[in-house]
Specification:
The structure holds three protein chains of three kinds.
Chain A lengths: L4 H52 L1 E2 L9 E2 L3 H8 L4 H30 L6 H8 L1 H4 L2 H12 L5 H8 L16 H26 L3 H9 L4 H29 L3 H6 L11 H11 L3 H25 L6
Antiparallel strand pairs in A: 1-2
Chain B lengths: L5 H31 L21 H9 L2 H32 L5 H10 L9 H11 L5 H26 L2 H9 L4 H30 L2 H5 L9 H6 L2 E2 L2 E2 L1 H23 L6 H6 L1
Antiparallel strand pairs in B: 1-2
Chain C lengths: L1 H23 L3 H4 L11 E7 L6 H15 L3 E7 L2 H13 L6 E5 L3 H6 L7 H5 L9 H9 L9 E5 L2 E6 H7 L7 H11 L7 E4 L6 H13 L16 H11 L15 H9 L3 E7 L3 H7 L5 E5 L9 E3 L3 E6 L6 H11 L2 H11 L12 H4 L2 H11 L4 E3 L8 H17 L5 H23 L2
Helix pairs in contact in C: 3-15, 10-11, 18-19
Classes of the chains: A mainly alpha, B mainly alpha, C alpha/beta.
């Protein structure tokens, strides 16, 4: 495009400036959008999280401040060399997360699919099906501990009446059943999370896709596999990631049902940290464990995001 | 799919599995309510009573009066509603950025959000206390609102970004081609489709604040500012586990949540139908 | 673009406004301890309760309203903390330098709080007070003895004692003697067990908190007065104790329910209250619970069996007291309230409702004390001149964490057969000795 400089330059300049301004403005938008979130998180969470890292290098006893001193890497070394509970608790954490998230996802998806259909009283049933989510951890553990109780627990009562067992079982007291018992209690609480999010996700699947599949002669199962699941993929990936992190750090039920016992069979890494925080006096050691737990989750999250090709979608 | 007969088909693929899941979900609830209506002495009775032989409302009265339930509920509501509003605004904005834009530092931003979830709350209590003490906000509902918002934002942002990503970009663009500004396209096209996601996120946030115990306890030094979970846990003294009052208290605490769910689930309806026709 | 910016600015300005309002508003730090009686406005003091609940909170509130009537220039604000997190909350308050005026504080917490310089010494106040001479000497001296500088940091208002609750109706039914010695105790546990009818002789607290109870049983058996000897050695792993642990914990599953191994307080008491267990060890404070579930004719409190030397043994420091925090701006008013709470009238009211023992000697003459069998049982032990009171090392910062951590899980290991009694006791003793050594080294004692 050719033009005479004197006449068109100011116009071109203006156009160029406009373009540049628009260009800059457009680029700024996402940053503007994330500012409130970043502000909140940085102002209020960075200091506490930073302190955890700081304390991991200290001997810090909150109830005996006169013992405090710099520990360097001592805490970390001790964790890997002389802590008998570290690796078993890590293994328990793995077992816990895989079982819980797996089961919750499966049952949550089933529930979401069921609640997506039309039937009488659907509204009421939906409201009611989500209730376990609304119960706080402390209350849930009291109820389940009451139900599992050897003497006055309703579970034992029912099992005995049905003739499945002939004497009351101590579910939470036996190393073979305690873990499973806690898993079931947490499962009860966790299913609604997936049910709600997946149900919301199901809502945004265009009906046309299903219609098209039906026209092509796909069976229900096939349309589930090739329409529903792919559409839900992002939601599933994200919710699973969040849930894994959440369950890894979740101790409410374990703390109140078994306290990590019997004989540490239900002690996960986070439960171990909680025990130290509440009962122990070395906050520094607990912080070091937390830092390690942080590292594990960070690596997991980074890998997960990469492998699930989340952004490539 | 299982059978040619539509009725049996529906039975097998809907009613039976639904019934089974519902029984699992509702049984502990039924047991709680059962316990709440039993007089304290009867709870330990054997044989177990599947329905109270001497139903009473004394537990509810005790929970409501002796522990100052009304105040606790009010505090929880204030904190809960405020938190939900702030969280929804912040996370919708951030979620939109994550879902629609590729920008430098996006991955770092997401990881940063996730990182805040990696640390158990119990390890952050004292520094949080010091922050709010310096701001002069101890015992103020604002301390809880701010903390809960900061804690929930990472989770809700990621969740919202997922929901927003599910709304096809083409719809916005189509609307703009039809003459809407970006603003209008967001309002008329994206927002209605986002409603289920917003509802789900709002519900999660509210329930979290409704049940959060540790931070509420630590950042509040005034009895009349305690939230519900703190109040409820006073029913569990060492020498004094009042199962009846605890069950009754739990039932009362559940009511707002159930109302919320009943309202929210109405919006978890397929909203795509209308929009795509255009 | 506008709408989102608009939304964003709304958000930002909302938060900013709210923050501003809050900073100027009626929050704790702003208005707490400003006004004094001179201005004609009442002084406000805050009182923290470490064991709030639907039964106890009204008791405190009643006492507070009585106090406020007699003292119109003082307003008391009550904050009830849940038992399980009360200590953590006080720890955090001390760490952040934001403590209440006074609180109900367990005696075992005094050494730690005082060495962190959180509490006000009360010796002078007490000496000038009408309470001087009325409060149980032994308890007061114990409080002074366990802290580093031997000052008085807590005025005890209630005492407790570990005892055995038993189903006396079952003992009568089967014609078994109510145990007074350890041999009789073991015999009773066996005789009372009838698994076919789902009855057990005893129940052990194998879960959280079991360490404290086990400790009391163990010392009741061995009769030692010292927990740690002069040269820092622990009496924990003495041979006598090994014998005891082997025999005591072997009751598990033979004469106790299988679920004992994870029993916390709730489950243990449930065993007794649901009519499954004949004997349970706890303290007289759980009287209220048993009264709800059972008829008074069905159960009674008996002292722990006497030691081999024929003495009753009890753990010293089983009291709760009122302490004033150093950071208070109104020590005089706080003392007035502390004094009121320890008066005969207040102590009588509180202890009668809760079912524990008052420390104010004026109360001991009252009728309800005379008519209360479990309190009489407690006096039997405390008043006996031969009773041995042993003193656990509360002053060691690791004391609680050793019991909660090492010992609690050690008990489960022995009960499940994973560790021997000797190993368990050695570990426990070793931990205490190490803590003691560290303490002596640091303080040059």
């Amino acid at each position: 495009m050719s033009y005479s400089p004197e006449v068109n330059e100011p116009v071109l300049e203006k156009k160029k400036n406009e373009k540049v301004r628009k260009f800059n403005k457009a680029k700024l938008v996402p940053y503007l959008f994330i500012t409130p979130a970043v502000l909140m998180v940085v102002s209020f969470l960075f200091y506490p999280i930073g302190m955890v890292f700081y304390y991991s290098f200290q001997n810090y006893d909150i109830s005996a401040p006169y013992y405090n001193s710099f520990a360097g890497l001592d805490n970390f070394v001790n964790i890997f060399t002389s802590d008998k509970l570290f690796f078993p608790s890590l293994l328990n954490s793995l077992k816990w997360v895989v079982t819980e998230v797996g089961l919750q996802l499966v049952f949550g998806l089933i529930l979401a699919l069921l609640l997506n259909q039309t039937f009488k009283f659907r509204g009421m049933i939906r409201a009611v099906a989500f209730i376990p989510w609304a119960i706080s951890g402390v209350l849930a553990s009291v109820i389940w501990s009451l139900m599992y109780n050897e003497h006055m627990g309703v579970l034992n009562d029912i099992l005995m009446r049905l003739g499945i067992v002939d004497s009351p079982q101590a579910f939470l007291a036996s190393t073979s059943t305690a873990f499973g018992a806690v898993v079931i209690a947490e499962l009860w609480r966790g299913i609604p999370f997936f049910a709600i999010t997946l149900l919301a996700g199901l809502q945004s699947i265009p009906q046309e896709l299903y219609e098209a599949a039906r026209v092509d002669g796909a069976s229900r199962w096939k349309s589930f596999l090739f329409v529903t699941l792919p559409q839900l993929k992002n939601t599933i990936i994200l919710t699973t990631l969040l849930r894994v992190v959440w369950e890894f750090n979740n101790v409410d039920l374990i703390f109140n049902l078994t306290g990590g016992g019997p004989a540490h069979s239900t002690t996960t890494l986070t439960m171990y940290i909680a025990e130290l925080a509440v009962h122990g006096s070395n906050f520094g050691y607990g912080s070091a464990l937390t830092v390690i737990s942080f590292g594990i989750l960070l690596v997991f999250a980074a890998l997960y995001l990469k492998l699930s090709r989340y952004e490539k979608e | 799919m299982f059978s040619k007969n539509k009725k049996i088909d529906k039975l097998l693929t809907l009613y039976v599995p639904l019934g089974m899941l519902l029984s699992f979900t509702l049984f502990p609830l039924y047991w709680t309510i059962n316990t709440a209506f039993k007089p304290e002495g009867d709870i330990m009775n054997r044989p177990l009573e599947y329905a109270p032989l001497n139903p009473t409302v004394e537990n509810f009265v005790m929970a409501w009066n002796n522990v100052g339930f009304a105040t606790f509920m009010k505090n929880s509501l204030i904190v809960g509603v405020s938190t939900v509003i702030v969280v929804l605004i912040c996370s919708t904005l951030s979620g939109y950025a994550l879902a629609r834009y590729q920008f430098k530092g996006k991955r770092a931003f997401m990881l940063m959000l996730l990182c805040t979830q990696f640390i158990p709350r119990s390890m952050m209590i004292i520094p949080l206390f010091i922050i709010f003490k310096n701001l002069g906000l101890i015992s103020s509902p604002l301390a809880l609102i701010i903390t809960y918002t900061a804690i929930e934002i990472p989770f809700t942002t990621i969740l919202m970004s997922g929901f927003i990503a599910n709304v096809p970009k083409e719809l916005e663009e189509a609307a703009m081609i039809d003459g809407c500004t970006k603003l209008q396209s967001i309002r008329h096209v994206v927002f209605p489709l986002l409603l289920p996601g917003i509802v789900a996120t709002g519900v999660f946030t509210f329930i979290y604040t409704w049940n959060e115990f540790l931070i509420a306890l630590m950042l509040t030094n005034r009895q009349d500012r305690f939230t519900l979970p703190v109040g409820l846990s006073t029913m569990m003294g060492e020498f004094n586990v009042n199962y009846g009052a605890l069950a009754a208290g739990s039932v009362i605490a559940l009511i707002p949540a159930v109302i919320l769910f009943a309202y929210a689930q109405k919006h978890l309806v397929n909203g795509m139908g209308g929009a795509v026709k255009g | 673009m506008f709408k989102s910016k608009f939304r964003k600015s709304i958000a930002v300005s909302t938060i900013a406004t709210a923050l501003l309002l809050a900073a100027c508003g009626d929050d704790e730090s702003a208005g707490k301890k400003e006004v004094s009686a001179e201005n004609g406005k009442p002084v406000k003091i805050t009182f923290w309760d470490e064991n709030a609940g639907p039964q106890r909170t009204p008791i405190w509130e009643e006492l507070i309203s009585q106090f406020e009537e007699e003292n119109p220039m003082i307003d008391v604000e009550y904050v009830g903390l849940p038992k399980d997190s009360a200590k953590s909350k006080m720890d955090a308050a001390i760490a952040a330098d934001d403590t209440p005026d006074l609180a109900s504080v367990q005696t075992s917490w005094l050494p730690e709080f005082s060495i962190r310089e959180a509490l006000l010494p009360l010796d002078d106040y007490f000496a000038d007070s009408e309470l001087n001479g009325l409060i149980n000497e032994g308890a007061l001296n114990f409080n002074k003895d366990i802290v580093a500088d031997k000052k008085l940091y807590g005025i005890p208002y209630t005492q407790n004692l570990d005892i055995l609750w038993i189903r006396k109706d079952w003992f009568e039914e089967k014609g078994v003697k109510i145990p007074e010695t350890w041999d009789e105790f073991y015999a009773a546990a066996e005789a009372m067990t009838d698994k076919a009818n789902n009855r057990y002789g005893y129940t052990i607290r194998g879960g959280a908190g079991g360490s404290f109870q086990l400790q009391r049983m163990m010392y009741a058996y061995n009769g030692f007065e010292d927990y740690l000897t002069e040269d820092g050695k622990a009496t924990i792993n003495d041979q006598k104790n090994v014998e005891f642990i082997e025999k005591y914990l072997s009751l598990y599953e033979d004469y106790t329910p299988k679920s004992d191994i994870t029993n916390g307080y709730k489950e243990m008491i449930a065993g007794f209250d649901t009519g499954v267990v004949a004997m349970v060890q706890h303290n007289i404070g759980s009287f209220g619970e048993h009264k709800e579930a059972l008829e008074e004719s069905q159960f009674q409190a008996i002292p722990l069996p006497k030691s081999e030397n024929g003495n009753y043994v009890a753990e010293g420091g089983n009291t709760i007291g009122i302490s004033i925090f150093k950071g208070t701006d109104n020590p005089d008013e706080a003392w007035k309230f502390a004094e009121f709470l320890n008066s005969a009238a207040s102590q009588s009211f509180w202890n009668e409702q809760v079912g524990q023992i008052p420390t104010n000697s004026d109360v001991l003459k009252e009728d309800w004390i005379q008519n209360s069998p479990h309190i009489q049982t407690a006096f039997e032990v405390y008043d006996d001149p031969n009773t041995v009171l042993y003193k656990p090392p509360f002053y060691l910062p690791e004391y609680r964490s050793i019991l909660d951590g090492t010992v609690d899980s050690g008990i489960q290991s022995v009960m499940s057969g994973k560790a021997s009694a000797q190993e368990f006791l050695d570990e426990w003793a070793g931990a205490m000795e190490a803590a003691q050594a560290k303490y002596s080294e640091h303080f040059g004692k």
